[in-house]
């Protein structure tokens, strides 16, 4: 890592989320009632950029993405600018409409269901990523499985994600990859060649299992020991410094230097929970913030849990994130889960 670097560069998915709260998620031919609806920025690149600026406005954040020459594209650019995110590498194209997602949150289960239109996301390529002038320390990249060109082989590389990660590391950045809830086999195929070019991997219980080839969820319940085993397997498959795994009940971090931490999540009151949309991004933001500030894995994990818990108070991805100190204060008041 080059000296003097500070800040986080997010790259990849910028999407407009149309967040909708429904009574429950119906089966096919079923019926549910719609209660709330709002437009919000979404996607891994957008969410983490906004989360970091909310956790600590002094942290420099830059972003790379592709949006359409339309109202949704202008909305995303304005959202980023209002948050203080450097948007010089946010490219506008007339080739397609801005990527969007209908994001449904069930009032009954608080679980989310996403239906997306690829739009400009299908046109994002490694050529959009220029790291020649950035002085950021970390690249947070995503999302494999929802970007057609980046998912395909690229100029001799297994996929475009590998090409971007290699360019980033050659330019002096450390790298992290964000994942989406896609088919397990596709996820494993896309991520495997990326592992040698990642410094960090922050994923959920299902994702780590898919990458490691381990069953981490048994009878719909995350298995802590299996998650830890999978994290260790993935750590050894690449050049990673840290692997973190999160789920609603607990989180795990393992590092190459032998540090391990396992922490329960916080007990946010049920009445305050609005939805889980963006909780994984908030967890990653808390974890990366701690890493950026030189915290231990355990302290970073605690903030990651706190940020994820705070995010549950909104149906949007970033609407309930507060400063890192306030996230920890909220978490302390709630206490840890005991189930």
Structure summary:
The chain is α/β, with parallel strands linked by helices and 339 residues long.
Annotation keywords:
four-stranded mixed sheet; nine-stranded mixed sheet; 10 helices; about 350 residues; single chain; UDP-N-acetylmuramoyl-L-alanine:D-glutamate ligase
- Proportion of strand residues: 25-35%
Kindly provide the name of the CATH class.
Alpha Beta
Task: Name the CATH superfamily classification.
Answer: Ribokinase
**CATH-scheme architecture:** 3-Layer(aba) Sandwich
Q: Write down the domain tally.
A: 1
Write the layout of secondary structure elements.
Layout: E1 8-12, E2 15-22, E3 34-42, H1 44-55, E4 61-68, H2 71-83, E5 86-93, E6 100-106, E7 112-117, E8 138-142, H3 148-151, H4 160-170, E9 174-177, H5 184-191, E10 200-204, H6 205-212, E11 217-218, E12 221-222, H7 224-237, E13 242-246, E14 250-255, E15 260-264, H8 279-292, H9 297-311, H10 324-334
Describe the model:
The chain has 339 residues and is of the alpha/beta class. The chain has a single domain (14-334), classed as 3-Layer(aba) Sandwich (UDP-N-acetylmuramoyl-L-alanine:D-glutamate ligase), CATH 3.40.1190.20. It has helices at residues 44-55, 71-83, 148-151, 160-170, 184-191, 205-212, 224-237, 279-292, 297-311, 324-334, and strands at 8-12, 15-22, 34-42, 61-68, 86-93, 100-106, 112-117, 138-142, 174-177, 200-204, 217-218, 221-222, 242-246, 250-255, 260-264. The relative contact order is 0.14. The model has no long low-confidence stretch (mean pLDDT 95).
